TrEMBL record:
MF (Gene Ontology): catalytic activity
Name listed for the protein in its UniProt record: AB hydrolase-1 domain-containing protein
Originating organism: Actinoplanes friuliensis DSM 7358
InterPro entries: AB_hydrolase_1, AB_hydrolase_fold, AB_hydrolase_sf
Domain of life per record: Bacteria
Domain AB hydrolase-1: start-end pairs: 7-230
Amino acid sequence: MTGDGTPVLLLHSTVCDRRMWDPQVPVLAGAGCQVIRCDFPGFGETPMPTESQNEADDVSELLDRLDVGATAVIAASGGGQVGLEFASRWPARVTSLILLCTAWGGHERGPELRAFGAREDELLEAGDVAAAVELNVETWVGPAADEATRDRVRVMQRHAFEVQLAAVDVPPSIGHETELKAITAPTLLVSGAHDLPDFRQTAAELAGLLPGSQHVELDWAGHLPSLERPDLVNPLLLSFLRDRP
């Protein structure tokens, strides 16, 4: 947690961990926000679960422990799928929702995303973690990012692989259907022109299903725009959050 003021919860991509938000935290805190970020199970400093769990439940319990009733939510990729579920199950707790290149369970995977998953599985099964890390960096980090940013993603993705591959007898996660019609928060959907088609299509699909939502596609961005060009994304985040409770 950083800063004081209006709560803003940051949910990371499953290529990264909570450190992906380093470029956003001081800017949001400086704008009068209380910034909350967490690691999902198996990422960053959070170990793999020892019993069945649901990440949206985890988010709700975390906010309860912090005595945060309602918050803005900024979520990326796999974190966006958690954010959508959280906003649909507890709509009164989400004041606004910003989804960056979000995943969504209602979208059927296309050939590019299926091919990526198959290749990643193949490399990990062969024990070639380094190649799997590079596959993720090449796939998810857009052309606008510098080498230092690519290195940051390498560090986070490698750590996630190490934590997850070392786990044994991992219990299944608890699934809940996301009811989009229940979401009441004003929503900004951000996609990247250099991202895989799945995530661009997901943003467009959700924009047609979430009343009052906005969709912005960034012509320079890949899958992780908040890391690739924080100087361009941070003003977009602040502009959408401004004047909202």
